[in-house]
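At this stage, I needed to go through a protein sequence along with its fold in token form, as given directly below:
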Amino acid sequence: MEQRVLLCDTTLRDGEQAPGVAFGWPEKEMIARALVDAGIDELEVGVPAMGAAEAKKISQLAALNLPVRLITWNRVVLSDLLASYRTGVEGVAISIPTSEQQIKHKLNKDRAWLLDQMGQCVRNAKQEVGYIVLGMEDASRADINFLKEIITEAKKLGVDRIRFADTLGIMDPLNVFFTLQDLTRRSRIPLEFHAHNDLGMATANSLAAVQAGFKAVSVTVGGLGERTGNAALEEVAVALKYCLKREVGLDFKHLNSIASIVSSATDRKIPRAKPIIGADVFTHTSSIHIDGIQKDYANYQTFPPESVGRKHSAAFGKDTKFKNVVRLLKSRGMNYDHDTVNELLGKTLDKVHQLNRPLEEEEILGIVLSS
């Protein structure tokens, strides 16, 4: 049996970098507890170097003694790490720019300096925390041979996991699969893929990384994150199980409640068609689809909605048929003669055209009760 894929949630760090998002302590605690209750493997909970207020929230999370590993994000700077140690978290992520673009034009340094700084920081962290993630920032634009050099050095230093970050979201699934296979063959350290969604491929790229041999993926609830966001927790988790047949430790029935908590905390509505958690993703309007679903959900659904705490529903549009109305009435314990159903169907279609949209089941029942 293949090893379970680790889901490393960074909603409380990268997710909070989304424009206009800032979590207070109550929101941080609520989101953390909800994710832990669902069975998340790891939480990246913030950046202590941002200041005293952020460090205090992280310390409060650590003091909860949640049954999950908490890590913080840090630059490859000793002062960042010192701020993290004081919070009491179990682990740290140390991020190093790996592309020539960032090494030269962000840090104004060279590779030798970077490797030396990495060594100093990792050796220091080994004395203070129990788990170290080495984050290779902008790895998708880096020289692959330099990445291999970093991985070799990380092994010598005793790093626990290496994070490959597609920081600009420029990779595609085939590129991910064929490029990263070479890294997994060479790495004795588990690899994690951190996707960004700039081109809409974060979920697909995360799955491709797992197929290439990566053991962990970074995710955020609803894909929350900087710019266009990250790989969505709910999409990656469900796709791992139902597309790749891989095991994850998450209870999918918690996904909608977690999404609602984050939606409320960020004041961002969940799009109706958002995979897994959107209001419409298990709603069928076509009479052909409704008929097929009622016979066997597998006719028009990849997996049963009950597996993610949802259920099928129907919306009645311009192609609604007689039998669709009959089935709805029977499902609610109502029986009407042929003429009455025809009259109800006519009223339904009139209302659809009047509103220029499909009607929900409850709206149809409202027409029944008002007749």
Q: What stands out?
A: The CA atoms of residues 18 and 150 lie 29 Å apart. The chain has 14 helices and eleven strands. The two ends are 59 Å apart (CA to CA).
